[in-house]
Amino acid sequence: MSEPTASDSTSEPAARAATEADLRDLVAARRQKLRFLREELGLQPYGCRVDGLVDLATARATFDEAAHDAHEAQDAQEAEDGNDESMVDPRPRVLSSGRVIQHRDIGKLVFLRLRDETGDLQVSLSKKACDPSVFRLAKKLDYGDVVVAGGPMGRTKKGEICIWSDRLEIHSKSLAPPPEKWHGLSDPEIRFRRRYVDLHANPAAIQTLQDRSRIISRMRKFMENRAYLEVETPMMQSMAGGAAARPFTTHHNALDLELSMRIAPELYLKRLLVGGLPRVFEINRNFRNEGVDRSHNPEFTAMEVYQAFGDCWTMLELTESLLYELACAAASDRRSRGDETVEGADDAPVLPFGELKIDWKRPFEQVTYGDLFQRAVGFDMRDEVAVRAKVKELGLAKAEGMDHWFAVNEIFEECAEPLIDPARPTFVTGYPSAISPLTRPDPADPVLAERWDIFIAGMEIGPAYTELNDPEIQLAKFTEQLAGADDEEQAFRNLDEDFIEALRVGMPPAGGLGLGVDRIVMLLTGNLSIREVIAFPLMRPEDGSG
RNA sequence: GCCUCCGUAGCUCAAUUGGCAGAGCAGCUGACUCUUAAUCAGCGGGUUCUCGGUUCGAGUCCGAGCGGAGGCACCA
Q1: C1’ B51 / CA A18, Å
Q2: How long is the CA A189 to C1' B27 vector, in angstroms?
Q3: Domain boundaries, chain A
Q4: Which residues in chain A, range 428-447, keep a C-beta under 7 Å from any nucleic strand B atom?
Q5: Is strand B in 7 Å reach of the CB of A532?
Q6: CA of A529 and C1' of B6: distance in angstroms?
Q7: Is the CB of A61 under 7 A from strand B?
Q8: For the structural domain made of A20-172, what CATH number should be given?
């Protein structure tokens, strides 16, 4: 959009009427100021490179009580002497930038509150202490403008630590009407659609993204310390495999190729095992064409790990160590910034999550699928007669025609999962083989698979498996799975022959793990919605056109 | 895909049985050298999500649509 020029307002009546209407508009008022800055003050309101900036937290930390007192004494002395020859100011000087979030004009004093990613800091300007053009700019600033302020770190008479600014530059004039300064921006729809406003209006939103970054960084370091190699595998695949989920589809023009966005990196990571990389992990996006709720976003970040000559128990130790360390670090971070909702000892943190207080102390809980089932319904999961009766009793219509073990799982999800203590990280081990076709059966009891799932706060955080590496069995299971799929599933399921070929080349036995990174971030930052921990969660376009 | 609730000024929210669409903040003009949601005086700001219907009269009631929140379903 082009800037109206000063001559616009003198043209024909229709144009003048429009301009008058614009004058009542919040945006128009800001354009007016933009013009003022350019034409009256001769400023370039969209700035340029500035060196030597420190963030606002650093600036605040620069404040020196003794220097402040010395300066006060100097001032008093000068007043007494009637001597206004300036002495050397003992206060440390800083140069910082930030977004104006408050603007108070008291006549010959102007107070600004600046915000950056480290917090807020007041900038004070006195007409007497700064250049007239600086002061004129200070009076014209709006909530939302991006400025650079420089001057000595001092304190106001009321005790507020501030920059007593004698240098002030505008580097970006904000033309958008700002959110309300006290209630802020709370409408979730606007918050997520206009996240750039949310982030500066709600410090908690920025904190969450900073925490997310640190958590993922720590995950990476943890994996690297254990000699895992980070890899990246295709997100666009001609066959989306590695999970049972609906993929998104897309199209490659030059190759005239139907492609799917990946639903899991598993089959490619395993190919790397075959290729000779014994410990690999990937932290990246998966895409699943499914519903959206507090714990599901169509694109989500997962960490998947494979370790040659490991098994699901290797992965259990890895997961417990990782999550425990992340929880301790998150608790420590939050405590050090004064978060009083964090409880528990440093080595046994308790983090709030909604109504829950999640106790992260080691070891995590472990319960077998079979025991939990027995505890929930009072009979053994292998008792086919009792299972059939229970299905009827529960009115699980869709389970009635099912094979025994699928019916067991329906009952498990209905009756047993709710028994898991949501306030404790809990590994559920020993899933039935029949519902874990791609997992190696337990040699001691082939009815059970070497697989576990970890649940926290009622959310599934991730599964781990002792992977199958026999190509014949894998092929048979894949084929069986395909045969069992209904028509809807058939549409997006297919057999990855190349993956079978890779297994024929020979994959070492391995443990595999998948963790939902967004959900881990939710738990460690106390955010109840996955959208809070994703910078730009999926939103339907406002015009509804798709 | 289904159910329930919600959509009023830039933001946060009011508006009685269906009876002139309001407030605070933000904005504009002016005053003010220590503000802390600054204060004081004055001024402006609306497609009540959209379309249709009932009615003398609709923000309010009815229908459809759009968007959001919560729940369900889907979801190794």
Answers
A1: 28
A2: 24
A3: 20-172, 203-234+263-363+455-533
A4: 436-438
A5: no
A6: 19
A7: no
A8: 2.40.50.140
Per-residue pLDDT for A521 more than 70? yes
Q: What is the pLDDT of residues A185-207, one digit of tens each?
A: 888 888 888 888 899 888 999 99
Per-residue model confidence as pLDDT tens digits over A252-269:
999 999 999 999 999 999
> Do A513 and A305 touch, CB atoms closer than 8 A?
yes
A396-407 pLDDT, tens digit each: 766 677 788 988
**Domain made up of A203-234+263-363+455-533: CATH architecture:** 2-Layer Sandwich (3.30)
Rounded to whole angstroms, the Cα distance separating A194 from A196 reads 5
pLDDT for the residue A1: 33
Distance, Å, A397 CA → B30 C1': 75
Enumerate the nucleotides of strand B whose atoms come under 7 Å of any protein CB.
Answer: 1, 10-13, 24-28, 31-38, 44-45, 65-76
Mean pLDDT, rounded, of chain A: 88
| Residue A63 β-bridge partners | none
Q: Which nucleotide is nearest to A528 (CA to C1')?
A: B70
| Token couple for A7 | 């001559």
Asked if the bond preceding A363 is cis, omega within 30° of 0, the reply is yes
Q: How far apart are CA A73 and CA A59, in angstroms?
A: 23
Q: Do domains A20-172 and A203-234+263-363+455-533 have the same CATH topology?
A: no
Whole-number Cα distances in Å, A401 to A382, A408, A527: 17, 12, 40
pLDDT for A296: 93
**pLDDT at residue A363 is higher than 50:** yes
HSE-up (13 A, CA, CB side) for residue A523:
29
